[in-house]
Write a structure and sequence with these properties.
Helix 4 (about 135-150) runs parallel beside helix 5. The chain starts with a strand and ends with a strand. The protein has ten helices and 14 strands. The longest helix is centred in the middle third of the chain and has 16 residues, at about 135-150. With about 290 residues, the chain is α/β, with parallel strands linked by helices. Strands 10-9-8-11-12-14-13 form a seven-stranded mixed β-sheet, sandwiched between helices. The chain has a four-stranded antiparallel β-sheet with strand order 2-3-1-4. It has two domains: about 1-90, Alpha-Beta Plaits, CATH 3.30.70.260; about 95-290, Vaccinia Virus protein VP39 (Rossmann fold), CATH 3.40.50.150. A hairpin with a 2-residue loop joins strand 13 and strand 14 (about 285-290).
Length: about 290
C-alpha cells in the first residue's frame, strides 16, 4: 500500500511559513509535515498523508488550507511505499535545541549531548515534534521558569505528543498531568512518555473539557501550559484562571504574533499579568502569572 505525498519547493522563509500554517490547519489527521533545506536557497516542504487519502486529494486539501497563498506555488503530488513515509519525513528533521532540552527523532538518538535532556518524538498523528515555533517557544519558556522555581502541580492542556509534559516531568522528576481532547493524541502522549522514561511522571488523560473530574482532583495547578490555538485559548481563559493556584504561572502558545493582544486581553480580564513574551517564526509564546 502506498502513502500520498505532496511536495513544495520554496525559499526558506516561505517554506517555514507554509509548514507552520499546515501544521496548525491541515485537515488530514494522519499526516506528517516536514520543512528542510536542500541547498542554501532551496527548501522543500513535504506532507505525507494517511492511507485513506489519494495524492490528488491531499494536494487539494493543502491548497484549501493555504488559501490564496497556494496560487503561486508549485505543488507536486506523488506516493511512497507506506513503510517508508515516516522515515522519509523525519530524515530532514534535525534535533531542536531549546534551553536544557533537545527534541529529536530516533534517527538522531546518538547525536544528543550528555548534558541536555533529550526528548525523542517521532512524526505521528499528534501535534508537537519540536520543529514548530510554538513548541520550541514553550520549551524555552519552561526552561526559564524551572530555573526560577519548582512546580508541584503541573497541567499540560492540549498535550498533543506530550513533548511539553515529558520535558517538565524529566526536568523536575515530578508528576505532570497531560490532557487532550483527542483520544489518539492522549494515547500517543502516554506512549511517548513511557518511551522517554517519563512514564512514572506523566499521566496522559483524554478529557474533552474542564468538567472531567481529574482537573478538580489534581488542581489547583501552579503551572499550566497550553500550546493550542488563539480561539480556544481565549475561550478557556476563565477555566484556566479557576484552576490556577495562587501565584501560579501560565505558558500560552499556538497564537500568531498578531493575535497576542486578543489573547492577553482575555487573560487580563481574569486578573493574569504578562511576565514575558517570545516570538519565533511568526508565533508567540506568552508567560503570565496570577
Amino acid at each position: 500500500m502506498s502513502t500520498p505525498l505532496v511536495r513544495l519547493r520554496l525559499d526558506e522563509a516561505t517554506a517555514k511559513r507554509v509548514a507552520d500554517v499546515l501544521e496548525e490547519a491541515f485537515p488530514f489527521g494522519e499526516a506528517s509535515i516536514a520543512a528542510f533545506e536542500v541547498t542554501k536557497d532551496d527548501w522543500t516542504v513535504e506532507v505525507y498523508g494517511g492511507p485513506e487519502a489519494t495524492a490528488d486529494e491531499l494536494a487539494a486539501a493543502l491548497r484549501e488550507a493555504l488559501g490564496p497563498e497556494s496560487a503561486g506555488l508549485r505543488i507536486e503530488a506523488d506516493a511512497v511505499e507506506e513503510a517508508d513515509w515516516v522515515a522519509k519525513s523525519l530524515a530532514g528533521l534535525a534535533p531542536v535545541p531549546a534551553g536544557r532540552f533537545m527534541v529529536h527523532g530516533s534517527h538522531d538518538r546518538d547525536k544528543i549531548p550528555a548534558d541536555v535532556i533529550g526528548i525523542e518524538i517521532e512524526a505521528a498523528l499528534a501535534f508537537g515534534t519540536g520543529h514548530h515555533g510554538t513548541t520550541r517557544g514553550c520549551l524555552l519558556a519552561i526552561d526559564e521558569l524551572l530555573t526560577e522555581r519548582r512546580f508541584e502541580r503541573v497541567l499540560d492542556l492540549g498535550s498533543g505528543t506530550g513533548v511539553l509534559a515529558i520535558a517538565i516531568g524529566l526536568a523536575q522528576q515530578a508528576p505532570v498531568l497531560a490532557t487532550d481532547i483527542d483520544e489518539t493524541s492522549a494515547r500517543i502522549a502516554g506512549e511517548n512518555a513511557e518511551a522517554n522514561g517519563a512514564g512514572a511522571f506523566v499521566e496522559s488523560i483524554h478529557a474533552t473539557s474542564f468538567d472531567h473530574p481529574v482537573f478538580a482532583e489534581r488542581g489547583p495547578f501552579d503551572l499550566i501550559v497550553a500550546n493550542i490555538l488563539a480561539g480556544p485559548l481565549v475561550e478557556l481563559a476563565p477555566e484556566v484562571k479557576r484552576h490556577l493556584a495562587t501565584d501560579g504561572r501560565v505558558v500560552l502558545s499556538g497564537l500568531m504574533n498578531h493575535e497576542e493582544d486578543r489573547v492577553l486581553a482575555a487573560y487580563a480580564s481574569e486578573g493574569l499579568r504578562l511576565i514575558s513574551s517570545r516570538q519565533l517564526e511568526g508565533w508567540s509564546t506568552l508567560v503570565l502569572k496570577a
